[in-house]
Amino acid sequence: MGDTGTENAAIMLMLPSTLGALQAQTQSFCQSPNTPRPSSPSTANSDTEVPLRNPFERDVSPPPAGKMEETRNIREILAVDARKLSFGAFFPGKIFRCILEVKNLSQEPCLINLHFEQTKVFSSKTLLREFFPGPSKPRELSANSLPNSEAEHACWYLMLMTGTKSLEKTLNGVLLPPGNSIEVGVVVKAPPVSRAKKLYAMLSLSLDSADETIPVFLAGEVETPRLECCRELIYVENQIHVIPVVVRFEEQAQRMRIPFRNGCSQEIELMLSIMPFPGSGSAVGDDAIMTNVSCVPNVCKLAAGALGAININVSYDVDDSEDEEKDCETSSRGSGKKREQKVLIAKVRGTQMIYYYVLDFTFIVE
């Protein structure tokens, strides 16, 4: 019994040292082999310990190198042949198109998206930094911002130059093989405005899996046609444009040249026609002298800022004209002069712009 008690006492004395050694081995196993072992748990530095990862914690490790390259350097993957598209000046109702070429510079196929920005205004500072880095600055960018015509008029469209060529507001998921290019048509439908107005818009290109975009600045100007007759009289009260025309009883058919001026910066083509005047001052039926009034030719082109003429042919019945000639001769101070009215209609081809002029014919005898 004595030996057993002595033996138990010795085991109890060895137990703390054995537990301490086991604990030290456990800490050594959990630590990095290059990290020095702390002297005690109370003095251990947490910066030198390797934290254990929680399996339920969200993985915030950076994405693969290839994805980061695609997102950060989109201009190394996609390229456009123009960063600015200018549509020039056009009339209301006209439709214009420019071609934008997009090329895949990478060795892998990609999906591209195209859409128009919907913000109401564009910052002039951003436009200058992005599209006009040189010394020459557009005068329009002297203001703080420019209006977005797409947000105001919704007048811009996209179309692929292959396939059905339908007009779309957006193009999503367009497959572009490696090293290939695709042509995209950018279309503007000039809105119906009453006076000249500049149009600005922004087209954005992006990859299907990227957040960064390539912007393309779009600019154009809607210009209203200005047709001016050099012989017209304007009645201010009702804004009626009257062109006085004198017809002499000399020949059965006569031609008059009426001068017009194109007051805008681009060529206009006029479609001409003459209609009866729907007022009480027109001579109709048995009282009418003229049997035919027409424009020859019925199409007239006027260059930008140029002066031209519209030819009007007038014919009348000889027998009736003799009676009218006698009436004019017996009248005092021209009070018995015969007068008739017609309406000259000049429509600008390809637009909804129409000009109306009252032709006031007066028949006299020399």
Question: Short summary of the structure?
Answer:
The protein is of the alpha+beta class and 366 residues long. It contains five helices and 21 strands.
Give the tags.
single chain; 366 residues; alpha+beta; Immunoglobulin-like; six-stranded mixed beta sheet; five-stranded mixed beta sheet; 21 strands
What secondary-structure arrangement, pairings included, does this model have?
Layout: H1 2-30, H2 65-72, E1 78-80, E2 84-90, E3 95-104, E4 110-116, E5 121-123, H3 124-131, E6 145-147, H4 149-153, E7 156-160, E8 171-176, E9 181-189, E10 197-207, E11 213-222, E12 227-229, E13 233-235, E14 240-248, E15 253-262, E16 268-276, E17 290-295, E18 299-302, E19 307-316, H5 318-330, E20 338-348, E21 354-364
Parallel strand pairs: 2-11, 14-21
Antiparallel strand pairs: 1-3, 3-9, 4-8, 4-10, 5-6, 7-9, 10-11, 12-15, 13-14, 15-19, 16-18, 16-20, 17-19, 20-21
Write up this protein.
There is one protein chain. This protein is of the alpha+beta class and 366 residues long. The chain folds into two domains: 68-132 and 143-222, Sandwich (Immunoglobulin-like); 227-364, Immunoglobulin-like (Sandwich). It is 17% helix and 41% strand. β10 (197-207) and β11 (213-222) form a beta hairpin. The chain is elongated and about 85 Å long.
